[in-house]
Specification:
By secondary structure, the protein is an alpha/beta fold. The chain folds into two domains: about 180 residues, 3-Layer(aba) Sandwich (Rossmann fold), CATH 3.40.50.1000; about 80 residues, Alpha-Beta Plaits, CATH 3.30.70. Helix content is about 40%, strand content about 20%. The protein has nine helices and 13 strands. The strands form two sheets. Strands 1-13-12-11-2-3-4-5-6 form a nine-stranded mixed sheet, with helices on both faces. It has a four-stranded antiparallel sheet with strand order 7-8-10-9, covered by helices on one side.
C-alpha cells in the first residue's frame, strides 16, 4: 500500500479527470473513530457539514456502506441526498430505489431468537454485548478483559457452530466483533458492485470513477471490487495491516482532511 497523501498529485489527477466520482465510505473507524459501544458514536459537526457539501456537488455521488442497520446509520449521519447501505449492503437506499435482501428479511424472527440464545450463553462475561441489527447480529467484545476473550470465543462458537456448519448462517469477524449474517452470497463487495452499476445506469455516468474507504476485514471485499473496476481503494489504519487496498490513510482524522481536499 502507498500512503495516499504521499502520492496525492497522481491520485488528484485521476479524480480531476473523471467525469463523475462515486465516493463510498465505511462509517465506524473510517468517518468516525471506533468507540467502546456503537450507540456512543457521534459524527462530528465538521464532518456532517463536509458530507452535505459533497452531497450537493454534482461531480460526486457520495454513499456510506456500513455494518450498521440502515435506520441506525441514517440516524447517525442525517445527511440528505446521499446513498446509505446498511447491514453490509443487505439493505440499501439510493439512486431513487431501495434494495432489501429477501432471505435476510425472512430471517428477522430467527435472528431475534438467536440473539436471546447468545445473550443467555454470554451472560456473566463482563463487557460483552449482543447487537441485534434486524438482518444481522454482532457480538462485541472490545470492552472484555484480554483474559476473557477465549471465553467469549468458546461461548459464541457453542451457539453458532452447529448453525454455521449446516449452512443456516454465515459467520465473519471484524475488529473485536463477531458478525452473524444470513446464508446469502452478499457482502460489501457485492453491494459496492451493485452501487457502481446503479450509478452508471441512473446517473448516465458510464465512466464514473469508484472510490472506497474502509478500515476493517469486512471492507476487503469492497476493495477487491474497486480494484476490479479500476477505482481507488483506500484502507484507513496502519500500513502493516495486510489489506488489498492500493492506498492507505492513517486515521479517520486524515479521512476528514481528504474530504476537505475533495
Amino acid at each position: 500500500m502507498q500512503y495516499l497523501f504521499g502520492v496525492w498529485n497522481k491520485v488528484a489527477q485521476r479524480l480531476k479527470s473523471a467525469n463523475h466520482v462515486l465516493l463510498l465510505c465505511d462509517f465506524d473507524g473510517t468517518l468516525t473513530p471506533i468507540v467502546d459501544r456503537p450507540e456512543l458514536t457521534v459524527l462530528p459537526a465538521e464532518t456532517t457539514k463536509l458530507l452535505r457539501t459533497l452531497a450537493k456537488n454534482r461531480r460526486y455521488t457520495f454513499g456510506i456502506v456500513s455494518g450498521r442497520a440502515l435506520a441506525d446509520l441514517k440516524g447517525k449521519v442525517s445527511v440528505d441526498g446521499i446513498v446509505y447501505a446498511g447491514n453490509h449492503g443487505l439493505e440499501i437506499e439510493g439512486f431513487g430505489s431501495d434494495f432489501l435482501d429477501p432471505v435476510a428479511e425472512e430471517m428477522r424472527p430467527f435472528f431475534q431468537m438467536l440473539s436471546h440464545a447468545l445473550l443467555a450463553t454470554l451472560r456473566g462475561i463482563k463487557g460483552v454485548f449482543v447487537e441485534n441489527k434486524g438482518l444481522t447480529l454482532s457480538v462485541h467484545y472490545r470492552s472484555v478483559d484480554d483474559a476473557e476473550e477465549t471465553r467469549v470465543k468458546d461461548a459464541f462458537a457453542k451457539v453458532t457452530d452447529p448453525l454455521h456448519v449446516t449452512g443456516r448462517i454465515r459467520v465473519t469477524e471484524g475488529k473485536k466483533v463477531y458478525e452473524i449474517r444470513p446464508p446469502v452470497d452478499w457482502d460489501k463487495g457485492k453491494a459496492i458492485a451493485w452501487l457502481i452499476a446503479r450509478c452508471r445506469e441512473t446517473r448516465g455516468k458510464s465512466g464514473a470513477l469508484p472510490v472506497y474507504l474502509g478500515d476493517d476485514l469486512t471492507d476487503e471485499d469492497g476493495f477487491k471490487v474497486i480494484e476490479k473496476n479500476n477505482g481507488i481503494s483506500i484502507f484507513v489504519g496502519e500500513q502493516s495491516f495486510p489489506s488489498v487496498a492500493r492506498y492507505f490513510l492513517k486515521s479517520p482524522q486524515e479521512v476528514i482532511e481528504l474530504l476537505k481536499m475533495l
